[in-house]
Amino acid sequence: MFLNNEQQFYLFLWSFVPGLVIGLLYVILEAVRVISPPDKIQLFVGDLLFMLAASMITFLFSVAATEGRIRFHMILAEIISFTLLYFTVGKFLINFLVSIMHTVHRVKETMCRKFESDFVKIVDFCKKIFARKKKSKKN
User: Fold this and answer.
1) Which pLDDT score is estimated for 109?
2) Is 84 helix (H, G, I), strand (E, B) or coil?
3) CA–CA dist 28, 11 (Å, integer)
4) How far apart are CA 46 and CA 54, in angstroms?
5) Which band of pLDDT confidence, cut at 50, 70 and 90, is reported for residue 92?
6) CA of 107: how far to CAs of 86, 95, 98, 102, 104, in Å?
7) DSSP-derived secondary structure for 36-97
8) C-alpha span between 111 and 126 (Å, rounded)
9) Which of 4, 13, 27, 109 is the most exposed place for a label (fewest CB within 10 A)?
10) pLDDT digit string (tens) for 58-84?
11) Is the pLDDT of residue 136 over 80?
């Protein structure tokens, strides 16, 4: 399949789309990892599934655009768009999510300490009341 310069340029521009999709998938995967840190097996399986999805997206795009012929500028455009998305929007979203997680953790810790101190006060108060009732029953 012969492509003239104009067709190759359009193919180059359209190749940014699969790179953005792959980048969004990776940002979502990283967000899930921030929310719920995986163990080694879950990390391996997640990375393997991501690589399979990324290769499938690239393969399907190359089949649709160039009848399955992979061209260097297609891969280059995907890498550029993935990298730009990951190091701009992706890093911002992950840092934002991490700050939200820290805030939620601090609020949870504060509420637990407050609840614990209130609970201890209530228990102490109940002990005093029961101690008074025991004294009054003995007399």
Assistant:
1) 87
2) helix
3) 27
4) 12
5) very high
6) 30, 18, 14, 9, 5
7) S---HHHHHHHHHHHHHHHHHHHHHHHHHHHTT---HHHHHHHHHHHHHHIIIIIHHHHHHH
8) 22
9) 4
10) 999 988 888 878 788 888 999 999 999
11) no
